[in-house]
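Quick illustration for those who missed Monday's session on complexes.
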Amino acid sequence: MSKLLRLPGLIDIHVHLRDPGQTLKEDFFTGTSAALAGGVTTVFDMPNNSEPIFSYNKLIEKMKIVSQKAVCDFGLYFGTDGRNIAEFSKVQKLVVGLKIYLNLTTGKYLVDDEKMVDKVFQAWQKDKMIVVHAEGDKIDLAIDLCRKYKNKLHITHIATRSDLEKIMDAKLLKLNITCDVTPHHLFLTEKDLPYLDGFGVVKPSLASQSDADFLWDNLKYIDCIATDHAPHTLEEKKSFDSPSGMPGLETMLPLLMTAVKQKRLVLADIIRLTNTNPQKIFGFKQDKETYVEIDAYEEYEIKKENLFTKCGWSSFQGRKVKGKVKNVFIRGTKVLSDGKLLVSPGFGQNILP
Ligand code: DOR
Ligand code: ZN
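Prediction with DOR bound:
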């Protein structure tokens, strides 16, 4: 048997596990099982549930559900429509950060009024993260507000050269700004749309090859890779009006391991982007005994039949990858081995005490 490679358990700071509200697409058990199958041992779940997490009560309800169902560790985000600022002081200790949508995406929770965005940046605790969905001009707005109020700002799923350049400039100003990219913006482009059809619909949209190349060439300015795991049902994605989003938890690590083989990045990049930086940026420590063992030489094809995600499809279906997750350990317990889950719902813990 080949020797297994050990990596620290991956931390995915951006997932949508749809629970409560849309458990037809995913729930905390299937979503965190998919995480483990992909070598991800901690997920941070977004607040755009069908009834968004805009109040203390909704957050408490979600915390109860996730603690009963999760098989990997987790953190939750709070959400805002700009009208729930009075809730902030009650929830700040309970969440990993605040998510605000400055561009339209699933759930239509866009905050369009700049005065409201200003109030949100002013009110949110300065040493807790604000994660923004911002593209184009909205990135300028978020950076200006971060400068004005000295926030901790993270701009998620950067997809284009021009957006990354804005962040590279802001980093020169020594602002407290970080960013991530998704595997789909690294490994897919608009050229894949004809065959992906609805399965390529995502926000931000898949970009050009030169945009993707720019992301690859400037990985050193990127702080994290996060999946934006956003499952929808097969029927929805096949429909004329495919909702934006694709699952990613089970394919991120094999895609990245394959890219290591192709010399597009090195193992130390994977560790920095999926483990050490997420801890540094969000200010928490992962247990040393939380890790993944990978057979770096095993080749396989991504097949929908083998997925744990409830949605049951992947935009990377049919791709050949090299690097298979064999065993996953959380806090010293073996939680997954050879595609078999070994722990019960409720094993996963909130990373916040
Ligand atoms: O494509 C996306 N889908 N982008 C997002 O930002 C949200 C996500 C979802 O919740 O479906
Ligand atoms: Zn998202």
